[in-house]
Design goal:
By secondary structure, the chain is α+β, with helices and mostly antiparallel strands. It has one domain: Up-down Bundle (Outer membrane efflux proteins (OEP)), CATH 1.20.1600.10. The chain is built from 10 helices and 4 strands; from the N terminus they run H-H-H-E-E-H-H-H-H-E-E-H-H-H. Strands 1-2-3-4 form a 4-stranded antiparallel β-sheet, with no helix packed on it. Helix 6 packs antiparallel against helix 8. The longest helix has about 70 residues.
Length: about 450
């Protein structure tokens, strides 16, 4: 009796072109947005960044207030009064009341006020501090947008791979059922394929839910509904890390990293605060000028006619502090301790940034090596799957071997896609750690996306 020959198994090869097709089905490129486009949306919508920008404006206004201590001040005051006189000794017909009007224009110019000049210098440091804070918020927005962007792409990849694996397992299940019906395989093959199909179905549900969650996070960040990030173009050529020396990145970070700059500005402000405290022991000199006009439109008590008196004065006012209950001495002690704390914070910030830069650099280097290894593993997994399928056809492999080879291939493809995203994100995080991350750096990543 001639048994029917085994049906040939369909070749499973989900290469880059097929992956791009699957991803395009999930996110139509005609309506997709690039990373730069979504970043521009996030910059105009994100509440955290808008809060940081408004805080920057407030800090600039606060710094400008330091000018007031060295600029002149001027004021104008005016008043009117009615004076009534009651006297038992006053002769008949004498004045019993009169009106008085006066106006005074005064001005003052600090001549020697060391505390005010220290406050004025602090204003410049506060501007530097505010600028560093805004730059830190801008860099954080770039990383958050990129992270959300690639999170969606990774979730799309996972869902695409799971669905492709589900289709392959379904074909394997149908093949096992047909072989069992014709008596060329056992029920074990069918049950193994059914169990793997049920497992992949559960994974598909989880992957679909994860994609929805990632999509919501990206939508909330950029302020639009159903945003569609563009996938990476294929083939992907990841950019190398430049400069290639980690010490160069660390030196850059020490100069321009926003966290270090904030700590340095705080230390400078604390140093100037000591000068302000020490100014409590020093005299102050102000130049003053005033002009007063007093007018009695009706007869006064001294004369029966109206009068007007104009008075002008110019002078210097010297104020010498003698004793303030030891408040100045204690204030100096306080500022000295706060200055030391600021210097300690600066050193701690430098160490933390240096560690972050080195960690990010090693992460990118390791990620690039992982990408190369996974690209080789993808080819090996495809070859292993083809060999297991051929072995199953000739009877030297069982169904579970083919299913395991399928799972390994799809797992490798998913890991490879995630590794590529991690390298791109790692490059941005490296620049953030060094303080050199700008929106222009997104253009390089944007060039790797599908058009």
């Amino acid at each position: 009796m001639n048994l029917p020959q085994k049906m040939s198994l369909p070749r499973l090869s989900m290469g880059s072109a097929s992956l791009a097709f699957v991803l395009s089905a999930l996110a139509p490129l005609a309506q997709a947005q690039s990373l730069v486009e979504l970043y521009d949306m996030a910059r105009a919508f994100d509440a955290s960044y808008q809060s940081a920008a408004l805080l920057y404006e407030a800090n600039l206004a606060r710094a400008d207030q330091a000018w007031a201590g060295i600029l002149p001040t001027a004021g104008l005051s005016a008043g009117a009064s009615r004076v009534s006189i009651e006297s038992t000794a006053a002769p008949a017909g004498s004045i019993t009341g009169f009106n008085t009007q006066n106006a005074t224009l005064s001005a003052s110019q600090p001549v020697y006020r060391p505390g005010n000049w220290a406050t004025y210098e602090q204003g410049f440091k506060q501007v530097d501090l505010a600028r560093a804070q805004l730059e830190a918020a801008a860099q954080d927005l770039i990383v958050r947008t990129s992270q959300a962007y690639f999170d969606v792409l990774a979730a799309q990849d996972t869902l695409a791979f799971v669905r492709a694996q589900k289709e392959a397992v379904n074909e394997q299940l149908a093949f096992a059922k047909r072989n069992f019906e014709v008596g060329t395989s056992t029920i074990t093959d069918t049950r193994e394929a059914q169990a793997r199909f049920d497992l992949v179905t559960a994974q598909e549900i989880a992957a679909d839910n994860d994609l929805r969650v990632r999509q919501i996070a990206l939508d909330q960040l950029v302020g639009i509904k159903d945003s569609q990030p563009r996938p990476l173009a294929v083939p992907v050529a990841l950019p190398p890390v430049m400069p290639a020396e980690v010490d160069t990145w660390v030196r850059q970070a020490d100069l321009v990293n926003p966290a270090i700059r904030q700590a340095r500005s705080n230390a400078d402000i604390a140093e100037l605060e000591i000068k302000k405290a020490e100014a409590g022991h020093k005299p102050t000199v102000d130049a003053t000028a005033s002009y007063n006009v007093t007018k009695n439109p009706s007869a006064s008590a001294l004369a029966g006619i109206s009068s007007r008196v104009n008075t002008g004065s110019v002078g210097l006012v010297l104020n010498v502090p003698l004793f303030a209950g030891f408040s100045t001495q204690n204030r100096i002690r306080e500022t000295l301790a706060l200055r030391d704390k600021a210097l300690s914070d600066l050193e701690g910030s430098r160490r933390a940034v240096s560690q972050s830069v080195r960690t990010a650099y090693l992460g990118v280097q390791s990620g690039q090596g992982q990408v190369r290894a996974l690209e080789a593993a993808e080819l090996s997994s495809q070859s292993a799957l083809d060999a297991n399928r051929l072995g199953y056809q000739v009877g030297v492999r069982i169904n579970i071997d083919v299913l395991n080879a399928q799972s390994q291939l799809f797992q490798t493809k998913r890991d490879l896609a995630q590794a590529r995203y991690n390298v791109l994100l790692g490059g941005l995080r490296l620049r953030q750690a060094s303080g050199t991350l700008t929106p222009e750096n997104l253009q390089q990543v944007n060039g790797l996306l599908a058009r």
